[in-house]
Design a protein that fits this description.
By secondary structure, the chain is mostly helical. The chain has a domain of 54 residues. The protein is 54% helix and 0% strand. It contains 3 helices and no strands. Helix 1 crosses helix 2 and helix 1 runs antiparallel to helix 3. The longest helix has 24 residues. The radius of gyration is 23 Å and the shape is elongated.
Length: 108
């Protein structure tokens, strides 16, 4: 089952539970895919005021949301993978070096 994607999709988590970086990266990718789908649809449609308020726009947005979520869950465009890779590289670079002081043999 594909979870809906959007700002409210994190609201369903139990209290105190934070999404892992993998889930957050997939949701980020899904939001980007959803925006791309909406932009493509709007670019290919002539503006028609007669459809406003019929619910058609809402239905299309929900369909785009579900399609984007399904695509992101299955690897999407690879954006989530690149985000995770960047986070991992940044974590390695930010990791402080552990230094061990030299042993003073005189005090033994």
């Amino acid at each position: 089952m594909v979870m809906p994607v959007g700002w409210t999709s994190l609201a369903g988590l139990p209290e105190g539970v934070q999404p892992g970086p993998e889930q957050a990266a997939r949701q980020f990718e899904a939001l980007l895919i959803q925006h791309l789908l909406k932009t493509m649809r709007e670019a290919g449609q002539p503006q028609q005021d007669s459809e406003a308020g019929t619910g058609g726009e809402t239905y299309l947005e929900l369909a785009e949301q579900q399609l984007a979520g399904a695509m992101a869950q299955r690897g999407g465009l690879g954006i989530a993978r690149m985000v995770l890779q960047g986070l991992r590289q940044n974590a390695v670079q930010q990791k402080p070096e552990v230094t061990v002081p030299p042993v003073d043999k005189r005090n033994r």
